[in-house]
Design brief:
This protein has helices spanning 10-29, 46-62, 83-92, 97-107, and strands spanning 110-112, 115-116, 119-120, 124-126. It is mostly helical.
């Protein structure tokens, strides 16, 4: 049960960067991502989040209060992303239409094939998920 790595050409990497910059700009200005979320946010990392959580726990302990935490890790999250749901959510969030169309075009009609010992498999569609590897 392995997930392939996307081998993207230079043009795809540039397009991916254009999409990312546009989405980040929209997400920041519309304040769609909660301030507590650190994953996939520019300038934030798991180290920053760990520091914030540690501070919250220390403050609770110092004030003789309790602190709780819920962690969520969705199995195969990248593999199971439904393209239409992404498009729907972006339209509903007033994301610029041109950006939604570019993203949908980037995700739709993706295919893959496998090479083993120089022999190529048939071409298969990828109806769900997002590419990783750039």
């Amino acid at each position: 049960n392995f997930r392939g790595i996307s081998l993207l050409n230079t043009l795809s990497k540039i397009l991916e960067r254009v999409i990312l910059n546009g989405l980040n700009r929209h997400l920041v200005t519309s304040q769609m991502i909660p301030k507590e979320q650190f994953g996939f946010k520019y300038g934030h990392s798991t180290t920053h989040q760990l520091s914030r959580v540690s501070k919250t726990i220390r403050n609770a302990f110092a004030n003789k209060k309790s602190a709780g935490m819920v962690l969520l890790d969705i199995e195969k999250a990248y593999d199971s992303v439904w393209h239409e749901a992404i498009v729907y959510k972006l339209y509903r969030s007033s994301c610029p239409v041109y950006l939604v169309k570019i993203l949908y075009s980037f995700l739709k009609h993706r295919t893959f094939r496998v090479s083993v010992n120089g022999i190529l498999s048939n071409v298969y569609n990828i109806p769900f998920g997002v590419p990783q590897g750039s």
